[in-house]
Specification:
Chains A, B: Belongs to the acyl-CoA dehydrogenase family. Chains A, B: Its cofactor is FAD. Chains A, B: This is 3-methylmercaptopropionyl-CoA dehydrogenase. The structure is a homodimer of 598-residue chains. Chain A contains 18 helices and 14 strands. By secondary structure, chain A is of the alpha+beta class. The first copy, chain A, folds into three domains: 148 residues, Butyryl-Coa Dehydrogenase, subunit A, domain 1 (Orthogonal Bundle); 126 residues, Butyryl-CoA Dehydrogenase, subunit A, domain 2; 146 residues. In chain A, the strands form four sheets. In chain A, strands 3, 4, 5, 6, 7, 10, 11 and 12 form an eight-stranded mixed β-sheet that branches. In chain A, strands 1-2 form a two-stranded antiparallel sheet. A two-stranded antiparallel ribbon of chain A has the order 8-9. In chain A, strand 8 and strand 9 form a beta hairpin. The first copy, chain A, is globular. Chains A and B meet through helix 9, strand 13, helix 10, helix 11 and helix 12 of A and helix 9, strand 13, helix 10, helix 11 and helix 12 of B.
Chain lengths: 598, 598
């Protein structure tokens, strides 16, 4: 319906000049990441996204995936697209080369994932969930399990799924009831129902490898009694060939507001006695293992918010340039103009553009922290990167996905009445984006994770380290010449002051009054996100300022970075200060009503 | 799917103690509005909304209206519901008793309209558009036109529609191209295509009376060359019986993101030579006449945002009380609790409740200003009320409809994963609510209307009068005892200061730099809305405080008003101060990029 062109110049600028891809490329094992390779990979991925995935986005929305007699048929064109994607080697990007992976850093894998998501969010969910399964098996699978499954999950010959949720176990994964009973041969019989299983059944591949959380007979109650099992749709023989169909089936597909092409399955295990499962690692450590992939999955969902906003932005720009309506606000000419000339339309586009760029930088920064946490040979640096990644992950997940909803809503608004008409396509982005603040831990859960686990637990150490880093940037940009730089310096500094005050309040208050902190946690996360976005935007402005002086510089592109940054300073950063009193003073009435006063 | 119970106690409290229904009831011609009548009317409307309209809301969403061979079939049950509504006399509530209307004030009509909208927004659009047609004919129709059409439009035997938009004429209604050519007999032949015509075709009634904007052959260009015509679907004989089918047809229904049951028609006039139309009033005065009903229509759309949020709130409360998930944040009990016990869920519910109540008060206040503008025998008071209504209308339309989107989004979020599943029903409210910031003048247009026409044009006079009124309330509540009152007083005062500063800036800047004002207009409207909401909330708190001391007071209800007000003071009012710099400083980069830098 609508075109998508990967914003490769923006991506490359952010990677090279804001986040520091070259530093990541210097980590052990990443020497393959040369500038040439980066260019080539981004260009090729961009073509697949533009030519194959993006044109199917609307088709997928309108047709959805369909279930008939236990068989799921994906939307027209999706299976072919999947094989173009898999045969191009794209499924293997970030994984272990020992099993066919390309071993590229997350800092490069995320921009690629961004393209799939912008082009076709429903499609992108299949690789994303598969990634979780691969990471779990890479980290915790036995040699036998790796041998049987990993290579094919990495090549894309099969796909993997994550089976956590049950009707009574959503945010509270400790409430899982699915049972695993041991057989004499070391396998287990799995019985139970799982819901909200993304690509739990589909027609892309011959086999699907389900990773399933279940309780063994001797398990203790709660999260410490949950084990992880591999449960293949078809049993896999020693030689890798497929054996009998396992006792599991797709019992239903959800009828969702968005991401229609992504089959969200109800999975029934063990209708006929039990599905055969294989324990991963040790009993009762399933939740612990899950956390291996959780940060990464949350980063991936944060990326979705930004990526879908980018798609909506491209469409809104296109419409605003083409739609002619009403005369210009100023001047004498009565002829109608393209609506991009109207200040409020322009403001909406700038809101989208400036926050998408900030969110993109945050996603890539979080990815670079992940790479450093895993690979930095300096133990202190790796530890600091790990702490930074832990801190940034809930912020990236929640801030970027809230932005996904807000910015796709602006995308609708820019279209006026046409935005509400489904054929325009703007509404799809808005509907698709709405899931991201919910799944992979609601944004309320992210906010509590930030406040309690990432800030309170270490006494604010990681947060204050980032604040110091941000403050250095604010000082540096304030020292540069020009009103734009000075304004960013001042507004960023003010936002940082607000975050610092809020962080101190969280650290001081959290132990005595958890309810107060929890009441303000969402606003605290928001002000932190807005401020980090400002910090990264300031870095982009300074980089653009420097690059402008180089011969052959793309002045128009670099100039846009500075103007866009100024807009962020003027219009977005003030949110942080505005939220400070909400965080620190806003809790008094939150719990004041009795239930029956609602 | 989900129940709706009209919040009659809240409505009555707001009418009696915040907005002053008794003052309105004292206006000439409204002496029928006794407390008994009000009670009876609200109760009866509440029953129809709960028992007839609300159960059809989900049915309407899933079935939509369907077009086949030019005939539109509305969703199952809608036609019957329409007749229950019309036969109950509800269609006649605010209209001229000379033509069968009940002559009730808008201050009472709006709460009733709120119930229809909360119960079934798609249904409510039919009476709402009909209301526009009735108002136009009441004010500008000839005696003959009134005689032929008004009585039946008021009784509901027929319905009326508003035909403004064409593909090239959306926000810019001056670009209308539909033609009207005079016949010798004084009638006109209408040819052209209209789009986005709400209930342009349906099966509720035997006839549909279209009010159509068109250009006559001698018309000047632009908005000053547009005339208004009555174009009935079936010609009406002198005796009121139906004659021949007119040359107009429904050429298509839009496929929309929400309000599926409301048929949004493409209307083709004059495929076979021209539809017969009758000029309303004088040639070239169509746009001027439109403004007769525009304020009221915008108020009605503002109401939609609040009403749909109320429906979403009721559903979210119900879910939050019933859904058990995770242990309480504090205490030792490991048993899971209803999610309403979790602070962040509570925060979301309070965000909904506090802002819905503020928005409701604003809608009713705007209605009372309308009644006073029309009926207050004191010319100065009527003039002041008219100015207040003019000032409040764009704020009510835009702030309440933005809240409609934001609060229905919170409603989805409270449901977690279930919120994204269509059968839950929360998603429908979110989809339905999204149109309200767009139609009847986009919220960007409302913001410009506020800044340029309602504030700049009179040098801020009406705005400063309201600011003075609000300041008196801030002073009064600050003088009452208790921390809740003091906090509201302080935070309201701070918000008023911010609005006053912004208003001065608009007045000072607007003439020299329209672009600067237009760039900040949406934020200016927002801070004004938030502050008026605080002012009305403060009035509610003081009223509750006073009523609490009366014998037989409902302490639980009144106490909730104070706690909810405190929440508004803590969490919502700080937005106003936060937006001040965005309004006054935020414009510098808005127009900075050239088109090709997007």
């Amino acid at each position: 319906m609508t075109a998508y062109n990967a914003p490769i110049q923006d991506m490359r600028f952010t990677l090279n000049h804001v986040v520091g891809l070259s530093q990541v490329a210097g980590l052990p094992g990443y020497d393959v990441v040369t500038p040439d390779l980066v260019d080539q990979v981004l260009d090729e991925a961009g073509k697949l996204a533009r030519d194959v995935l993006a044109p199917l986005n609307w088709v997928g929305d309108q047709n959805g995936s369909k279930l008939e007699n236990g068989v799921v048929t994906t939307a027209p064109g999706f299976r072919d697209a999947y094989w173009k994607y898999a045969e191009g080697g794209w499924n293997a990007v970030p994984f272990d080369p020992d099993f066919g992976g390309q071993g590229l850093p997350w800092t490069l894998a995320l921009p690629i994932q961004e393209m799939w998501t912008s082009a076709n969010m429903s499609f992108s969910l299949c690789p994303m969930l598969n990634q979780g399964a691969v990471e779990l098996l890479q980290a915790h699978g036995s040699e036998q399990q790796k041998k049987l499954y990993l290579e094919k999950l990495i090549s894309g010959e099969w796909t993997g799924t994550m089976n956590l949720t049950e009707p009574q176990a959503g945010s509270d994964v400790g409430a899982v009831r699915t049972k695993a009973v041991p057989n004499e041969d070391g396998t287990w019989l799995i019985t139970g129902q799982k819901i909200f299983i993304t690509y739990g059944e589909h027609d892309f591949t011959d086999n699907i490898i389900h990773l399933v959380l279940a309780r063994t007979p001797t398990a203790p109650a709660g999260v410490k009694g949950i084990s992880l099992f591999v449960v293949p749709k078809f049993m896999v023989n020693e030689d890798g060939s497929l054996g009998a169909r396992n006792d599991l089936r797709c019992a239903g597909l959800e009828h969702k507001m968005g991401i229609h092409a992504s089959p969200t399955a109800v999975m029934a295990y063990g209708d006929n006695g039990g599905a055969v499962g294989f324990l991963v690692g040790e009993e009762n450590r399933g939740i612990e293992y899950m956390f291996t992939m959780m940060n990464n999955a949350r980063l991936g969902v944060g990326l979705q918010g930004m990526a879908i906003a980018e798609r909506a932005y491209q469409q809104a720009v296109d419409y605003a340039k083409g739609r002619v309506q009403s005369r210009a606000l100023t001047g004498k000419d009565p002829a109608p103009v393209a609506i991009i000339k109207h200040p409020d339309v322009r403001r909406m586009l700038m809101c989208m553009k400036s926050q998408i760029e900030a969110a993109r930088a945050l996603v890539y920064l979080t990815a670079s922290a992940l790479d450093n946490a895993h690979r930095n040979p300096d133990a202190d640096a790796a530890k600091a990167a790990n702490a930074l990644n832990d801190l940034l992950t809930p912020i990236t997940k929640a801030w970027c996905t809230d932005l996904g909803v807000e910015l796709t809503s602006l995308g609708v608004q820019i279209h006026g009445g046409m935005g509400f008409i489904e054929e325009t396509g703007a509404a799809q982005h808005y509907r698709d984006a709405r899931i991201a603040p919910i799944y992979e831990g609601t944004n309320g859960i992210q906010a509590n994770d930030l406040a309690f686990r990432k800030v309170l637990r270490d006494g604010g150490q990681a947060a204050f380290a980032l604040i110091a880093e941000m403050r250095a940037t604010a000082t540096a940009i304030a020292a540069q010449s020009g009103d734009d730089m000075a304004t960013m310096g001042a507004n960023l500094s003010d936002a940082i002051d607000a975050v610092e005050t809020a962080t101190k309040w969280v650290v001081e208050t959290g132990k005595a009054d958890m309810t107060a902190v929890a009441s303000g946690a969402v606003s605290y996360l928001r002000m932190f996100g807005v401020t980090i976005g400002g910090y990264l935007t300031a870095k982009a402005m300074m980089a653009a300022n420097g690059l402008m002086r180089e011969p052959g510089a793309d002045a128009k592109f670099l100039d846009a970075k500075i103007i866009t940054g100024r807009f962020y300073a003027d219009q977005i950063l003030p949110q942080a200060r505005g939220l400070l009193t909400v965080v620190t003073q806003g809790h008094r009435a939150v719990m004041g009503l009795s239930d029956d006063q609602f």
